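Because showing beats explaining, we let one protein speak, sequence and backbone structure tokens together, and leave readers to judge.
___
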Amino acid sequence: MLTRSLLHRSSRLGAFVAPTLSLLTIPRNAVAQLIVPAMMRCCRAAALVGAVVLCTPKFARATEISSTFDLGAEGWQSVKLAYPNPGDPPVILETYSPGWSAAGGNPGGYIALDDPDGGNPTGNVQYWLAPSSFLGNRQLWVGGALSFDLLDSGSGYGLFRQEDVILTGGGLTLVYGLESAPSQAEWSHFSVGLSASGWRAGSYSGSEATQSEMTTVLSSLDAIYIRGEHQLGPDSARLDSVVMQTGPVPEPASMLAVGLGALATMRRKRR
């Protein structure tokens, strides 16, 4: 808890100016560390002109992590997970290094992998696995979004259903299903909210995720899986423009609340 009272004597006006920021409870996390110093500067500045400032939040630009694939695969891998249930947590059956192209993405470069078991009568499912730059403590990303572009050209045998995005962390697995499959002819853009809405615990058949579970996962994020294979039979999966961004981050703004006259009157009444 942070309590700060400012009292300033004005010799010219012969009145007390008492701008006060009191009983303001701030969580002890990274956001508070950014906000508090600026809030105090804003309130101290107000004291110099003899006014009370009410510091209220507005929103700054979000922070993001991204992979554009313009210079290479950037540490992304392709992994094979089990069909029809990837597991809780998923068990990686095989790992592949994707191919990279400098042009033809959305825009610029992209990574791709041809279905490694597409010619077999049965098979498992190819997912994209994020590099370590996306992982770790991502608590500030709660309420943000994970977006990406997919293209999956297949044999025309049809689509199949499987968990599309999988997050693991803090001993939990959360899964998400996209509203539609990626196009076979052009890039499709997807954006998945990093709040509880739409997510399930463990698998498609699991319970609806809670906000507490999302916070737990993002606070200790172990893995991000994005499904690349959507077609039955042989297909070629491509990935581009992956962006993970925070939710709105508050920053201090000020609003003039009370002038010198009201404060001076209150001071005289107290006497």
